[in-house]
Fold these 2 entries.
Entry 1:
Amino acid sequence: MMADERDGMRDGMLDAELDSALKDFRRSVHAWSEAELSRPRMVKAPMRTAVWRMAAGWAMGCVLVLGVGSAGVYEHGLRVEAAREQAKVAAEQEAQRKLAAQNAALDEDALLLHVDSDVARQVPAAMDPLTGLVDTEDAKQQ
């Protein structure tokens, strides 16, 4: 016998062993599959807590969104109120400034009238008692 023939016989025996092993494996897999399919199974009922958890999650999410929204509206209201207060204070300051300007103008006018009256006097104030002794009509005729 030659080496090629011996190798061919050995390959043939290995092929037969491999086929036998694969057939046994196939039969065991089919047997296991049949056993699994035929055994009674327990069906688990869906848990109702999952629905409540999802509903509670949505409710909490809605509460969070409404809380953030209402906080924004409240903050906006505070800012509007602060702006109104600032406008009111600014208007009061403007009114006080105008009143002070008017008083200053009146004081200035009164001062100018006082100066005009002092300048327009022909006789100084110290000589007022003496002016009463002089007859103005006689002085005009002379």
Entry 2:
Amino acid sequence: MIKWGIIGVGDVCELKSGPALQKAEGSALVAVMRRTAHLAEDFAKRHGVPKFYSDAEQLINDPEINAVYIATPPDSHAHYTQMAARAGKAVYVEKPMARNYGECTAMVEACKQAGVPLFVAYYRRALPNFLKIKELIENGSIGDIRFVDIRVHKSLHPDIVGQSENESNWRTKPEIAGAGYFYNLASHQLDFFDFLFGPIVRAQGFAANYGGLYAAEDTTLGSFVFENGVIGQGSWCFASALESETEKSVIYGSKGRIEFPFFSDFNVDVFIDREEPKRLKFEMPEHIQQPLIQMMVDELNNKGKTKSPSTGESGARTNWVLEQICQRVDRA
């Protein structure tokens, strides 16, 4: 039985992940932690969690816990991962994995030295719509892949961030998040394409701040090359006009293309030469991280050959790509 403790029970834990740790087969959520004790207690009571803490070290050292889920903002991911690794606990960390690639490699090394697994919450690697896209590509449905195009164009107040009214907007503070919304959202996209085509081995880009609402970049353009030779490009603008808003990724092949959103809905549109366009619709699990969590739990419980598709190594690769693309330029 995998017995979890959560560090940082904020909004992401309410529906996406916390209940999934309870409902996954072979898994139990036994303790939660938040620096504000009454908020930790409130979460524990509402979700039927036996124990709560206001100190992360106490949770990590709880002898009943054998796996730790780190759901704090990125600035504390490396610190808590290293603490959990030293205590011999398996680690599941939110995305982006850390503020920078250096922190990611330190996390991977700490877990390797301690002999504990490290997983990252890139849960799209286990969702049905994205698995269908992978199947279509591998079956050659749109022929040989030509290139990938990612577009996320939103206004200065994007509607896809998932931030509550009561939550501090840490996502636009580089000292906490590593960068801005680009790190928060593009990380999901670039990680999925790593899952689809393998590692990105070359990447470059430019980033700037046009809106002036915060310190981080709000507009980023990038290009990249995968290990298998597929090339891609992306534009992430969080300072566009409302009429210019779009959120769509497209994979172009020699026989057609696949279009899909990452954050807007769960449809996949397939266009193949001399065939009628198809829209594939998918139902998502109530707790969006549960499929990935189940795969992690099965791996930790040594159930067959089940392996989590999202690891510390793959998560670190995504941070490396983010850094290569997000090269800030000064505006005159």
